[in-house]
Amino acid sequence: MTSGGQRSPWAKQGPIDVAVRSMMPCEADTLGRILYRSVHELASRAYSEEERRAWAPRPPSGPDWEDRLAGQETVVAETDGRAVGFMGLDLRTGVLD
Question: What is the pTM assigned to this prediction?
Answer without folding.
Answer: 0.81
